[in-house]
Amino acid sequence: MAESGKTKLPDSAEDNGPVSKKARVADEVLSEPAAGSSGGMMLEDLPKEISEALDELDSCQREIDALNEKASEEILKVEQKFNILRRPMYGNRTEIIARIPQFWLTAFTNHPQISPMIDEEEEKCLQYLRDMVVDENDDIKSGYKIKFIFEDNPYFDNNELVKDIHLPYESPEDRPSVESTEIKWKAGMDLLKVKEKKPKRRGRAWADNTVSFLEWLTHGGDPSGDEIAEILKDDMWPNPMQYYLAPEVELEANGLSDEDEEEEGVEEESDVEPDTVVILDDEEEGEGEEDSEDNLAGEEAGGENEPTDELEKDEEP
């Protein structure tokens, strides 16, 4: 869904099995022993009034599940309707964004989760990114595509890179999967080749397990834990302007900004107890003694001069 507020469908909409399995109060269920217990509760062992109440509760829950399933179907219809209504608006937005140089690069580098993935070389490459588009499948539940449209650039021949995310729901045997466009790198411009040392990331050093933006874009596998794809679809795509206008994310080598480091320094100073005894080394102690002697000599010199001034005043006519 292209809304920033992601709608989570009830569980009953995510499987096509009978809704009754969500609330089954049958003998075999009640007879299963709880974890760590020596035995289970048999339905026939319950008092008659409790057994009758459980039967009524089971029937009531079946009705609730059936209504939830119907609501999920209606929600999908509404989402599909508004996805169609939004398409011309997104097309108009694309034309406006085309008049703003490096709009998407700026939005990416201002996003707190995406910015750390973009190293210095990839930032140069993403200067040629002209547009990003999220296309949800018509049925919404089965997946979506994230398309990156590039101008002609010195890095690769592709004008479009696509990450196609499949989220099958009709059969439990189907597995979620990802298909990504293979980047056709130009000679000597492959940014994904293994290097002895990765280039410095924007504002801080690379961690060993850091995945760069282009590595993520070309990576397949199970999309269930792909937070970046969800961020782009549910956060960036609905309103990229909020990140274009946001302050740029800059982190230092230790993961702290300059302001954070200053605050940390103040906190460390404030942690010192007022009665703390500071032990000086021999050199500092010697310097302290010399300062004390100089101060004492100055005081004595000042004391000798004071009476002289008074005598001079007395000798005046």
Describe the structure.
The chain folds into 2 domains: 1-99; 101-267, 2-Layer Sandwich (Arylsulfatase, C-terminal domain). By secondary structure, the protein is α+β, with helices and mostly antiparallel strands. Mean pLDDT is 74; it is low at 1-34, 203-208, 251-258 and 303-308. The protein is elongated and about 80 Å long. Helices cover 43% and strands 9% of the residues.
Evaluate the radius of gyration. 35 Å
Low-confidence segments, ≥5 residues, pLDDT <50? 1-34, 203-208, 251-258, 303-308
Q: What is the number of beta strands?
A: 4
The number of helical runs is 9
Mean pLDDT across the residues is 74
Alpha-carbon distance between the two ends: 103 Å
CATH homologous superfamily placement of the largest domain: Nucleosome assembly protein
CATH class of the largest domain: Alpha Beta
Q: What is the approximate shape? A: elongated
Q: Largest sheet, order of strands side by side?
A: 1-2-3-4
CATH architecture of the largest domain: 2-Layer Sandwich
Instruction: Provide the domain count.
Output: 2
Biggest sheet descriptor? 4 strands, antiparallel
Strand content: 5-15%
Helix/strand-derived class? alpha+beta
Q: Provide the CATH topology of the largest domain.
A: Arylsulfatase, C-terminal domain
SSE succession: HHHHEEEEHHHHH
In percent, how helical is the residue content? 40-55%
